[in-house]
């Protein structure tokens, strides 16, 4: 029996929600892994691949086609992609903690790459006749947003390129291959995913989504600055990681993108009269981005001997648990309003408590790291676990109720 447009849309929505639900679970797992002191080799797969990119994949399947005035070409693509992303993440985590045979790392990297190929191939085929996003799907009543929408759309092919490059470098590293002049493991590759894929997608989708959610506007020149810097910065960071002038230029560009996006978010907040819990989380995420930029510039321009090792941990926490995570938390609370939940104890108050715990936990952990006060770090990490638990409780409750 043929699948009609309504069924196709329902299929994409259902599997998009499944991606987000899995990502939320990984967020909680990441916070617990950090709180219990697991190494970064184990926590990065949970935080970046598991939480950030699973949510990114899930929402991109529904948002990107509409932003290019298209419908997803293969509605069941998210269902095919999800098992590969799940296996790739769990395998990378297991390899990071030293579980399983030596081949596990290569197997998980292969699974992750296959999932990324599905994602890029299907979205690429969906927008094949509109690759630059000139057709934006902008409504007739919002034609004033079309210029910003086109600038944001232009960044999305670059996001997909970063994703494939990062996945390819990961598997090359696991197989012992060393492409000339390119890193295959460590923080440089993590920056390809976190800055090149995730942060750039936050900029691109953020400039399309946030003005509509908050009924606000943004200067197209600021959007061009943020998107342009966000496109070039991650590449320079990766190819010359902590080495020389290219790294410093990349750090400067990435800082420019983060500061510019923060300025835009503050502008949205000042313009809107919609004081929802999600908006406060997004504002906190933007503030974290400013601190990420400041620390990144410190790493780029100060001698390595003058930067304490704890600063790198603070940078990691602010980037993944602050800028990316809080922005995602805020946006998901807009997509899935806590007030719609009918279960007692789940609602706006729970969502607000989750944001407070996440922000307080992040602040305590970062201050504790930078000031070398371990009790503050420990307290902050477990506060973050509490926040992630409340966040998961809210979203999973909403998802279960919608599935009935």
Automatic annotation (TrEMBL):
Keyword presence, Transmembrane helix: yes
Keywords per UniProt: Membrane, Transmembrane, Transmembrane helix
Residue stretches in coiled coil: none
TM helices/strands, residue ranges: 18-38, 44-68, 80-97, 103-125, 154-172, 192-210, 222-239, 245-268, 280-302, 314-335, 355-376, 382-400
Name by which UniProt lists this protein: Uncharacterized protein
Species of provenance: Natrinema ejinorense
């Amino acid at each position: 029996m043929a699948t009609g447009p309504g069924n196709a849309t329902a299929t994409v929505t259902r599997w998009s929600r499944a991606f987000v639900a899995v990502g939320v679970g990984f967020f909680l797992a990441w916070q617990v892994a950090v709180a219990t002191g697991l190494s970064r080799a184990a926590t990065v797969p949970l935080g970046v691949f598991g939480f950030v990119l699973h949510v990114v994949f899930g929402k991109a399947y529904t948002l990107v086609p509409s932003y290019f005035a298209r419908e997803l070409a293969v509605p069941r693509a998210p269902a095919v992609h999800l098992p590969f992303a799940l296996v790739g993440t769990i395998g990378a985590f297991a390899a990071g903690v030293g579980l399983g045979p030596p081949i596990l790392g290569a197997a998980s990297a292969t699974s992750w790459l296959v999932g990324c190929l599905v994602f890029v191939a299907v979205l690429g085929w969906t927008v094949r006749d509109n690759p630059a996003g000139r057709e934006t799907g902008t409504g007739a009543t919002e034609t004033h947003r079309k210029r910003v929408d086109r600038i944001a759309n232009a960044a999305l092919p670059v996001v997909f390129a970063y994703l494939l490059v990062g996945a390819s470098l990961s598997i090359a590293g696991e197989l012992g291959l060393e492409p000339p002049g390119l890193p295959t493991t460590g923080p440089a590759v993590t920056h390809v995913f976190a800055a090149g894929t995730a942060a750039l997608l936050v900029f691109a989708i953020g400039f399309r989504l946030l003005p509509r959610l908050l009924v606000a506007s943004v200067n197209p020149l600021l959007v061009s600055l943020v998107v342009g810097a966000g496109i070039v910065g991650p590449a320079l960071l990766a190819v010359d990681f902590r080495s020389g002038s290219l790294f410093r230029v990349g750090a400067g560009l990435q800082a420019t993108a983060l500061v510019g996006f923060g300025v835009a978010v503050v502008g949205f907040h000042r313009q809107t009269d919609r004081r929802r819990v999600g908006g406060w989380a997004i504002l906190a995420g933007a503030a974290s981005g400013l601190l990420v930029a400041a620390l990144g510039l410190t790493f780029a321009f100060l001698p390595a001997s003058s930067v304490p090792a704890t600063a790198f941990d603070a940078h990691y926490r602010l980037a993944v648990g602050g800028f990316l995570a809080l922005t995602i938390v805020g946006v998901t609370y807009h997509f899935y309003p806590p007030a719609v939940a009918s279960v007692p104890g789940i609602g706006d108050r729970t969502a607000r408590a989750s944001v407070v715990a996440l922000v307080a936990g992040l602040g305590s952990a970062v201050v504790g790291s930078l000031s070398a006060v371990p009790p503050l770090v420990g307290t902050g990490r477990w506060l973050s676990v509490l926040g992630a638990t409340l966040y998961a409780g809210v979203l999973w409750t909403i998802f279960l109720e919608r599935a009935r």
